[in-house]
Write a structure and sequence with these properties.
By secondary structure, this protein is α/β, with parallel strands linked by helices. It is 45% helix and 13% strand. The chain is built from eight helices and seven strands; from the N terminus they run βαβαβαβαβααβααβ. Keywords: Oxidoreductase.
């Protein structure tokens, strides 16, 4: 694989980067001085706070708002990045939403929303930006999935299905883009200390922690470190993999 520019001069786009794992990923890349694009949908001030934190490292940072479910808005985002000369060499498809509840109670609207954000969003962003990677014969696409996409979870059927689809998307696209020097991988963490876990009661979180061999949830920074590793030039032989940092919960 040919490296078109030094790693520290590359541009990374992180979707859903205004908080949680996405924010941690943005700061991890900023720490080495990379160009960082912080995508968000509505959390303008939270995204700006992440941007300010990243700029402390001397990184060039841009915040962009777009609905990942909309091709039109993703294309507008692409146009803005082209104007700023920040077309991504690395995409981290992190934007996602959870859904808790029995399948019997799931509406079509719920189903469509979860699928569109978690799966269609990754499709649209990858399709829109991978052309530049193919042309330069180098690139990284890293999808943030979930342990539930591997094992499934009761009362999280919709979310599990969306993340399972994202895992299949990862494996198939990796084979399609491998001849072009572009790797595609997924990070599928177990429970992480983020707002997404807010739907669980304290006793539910404690019960889950007791099932995890290391005895705790992951920190966003720990997931970000794995994303960063997969983006490195020397990780070019790793593609089509679903890697699950889960504290030994699922082996």
């Amino acid at each position: 694989m040919s490296l078109s520019k030094p790693f520290s001069e590359q541009t990374v786009l992180i979707t859903g980067a205004s908080r949680g794992i996405g924010a941690a990923v943005a700061e991890r890349f900023a720490a080495v001085g990379m160009n960082v694009v912080i995508h968000y949908r509505e959390s303008h001030e939270a995204a700006n706070e992440v941007a300010r934190s990243c700029m402390k490292h001397g990184a060039k940072v841009l915040t962009v708002s777009a609905d990942v479910k909309s091709r039109e808005q993703i294309i507008k985002m692409q146009e803005k990045l082209e104007q700023k000369e920040m077309i991504p060499d690395i995409i981290v498809n992190n934007a996602g939403i959870a859904h808790y509840g029995l399948l019997a109670d799931v509406s079509e609207e719920d189903w469509d929303l979860v699928m569109n954000v978690n799966l269609k969003g990754a499709f649209l962003c990858s399709q829109t930006f991978m052309g530049a990677m193919v042309r330069q014969k180098y690139g990284r696409i890293i999808n943030v999935s979930s342990i539930w996409g591997i094992s499934g979870a009761s009362c999280e059927v919709v979310y599990s299905t969306a993340k399972g689809g994202l895992n299949a998307f990862t494996k198939a696209l990796a084979k399609e883009l491998a001849p072009s020097g572009v790797t595609v991988n997924a990070v599928a963490p177990g429970p992480v200390h983020t707002e997404m876990m807010a739907g669980f009661q304290p006793e539910e979180r404690e019960a889950i922690e007791n099932e995890i061999p290391v005895g705790r949830f992951a920190l966003p920074d720990e997931v970000a470190s794995l994303v960063y590793f997969l983006a490195l030039p020397e990780s070019g032989y790793i593609t089509g993999q679903i890697i699950s940092p889960n504290g030994g919960w699922l082996t």
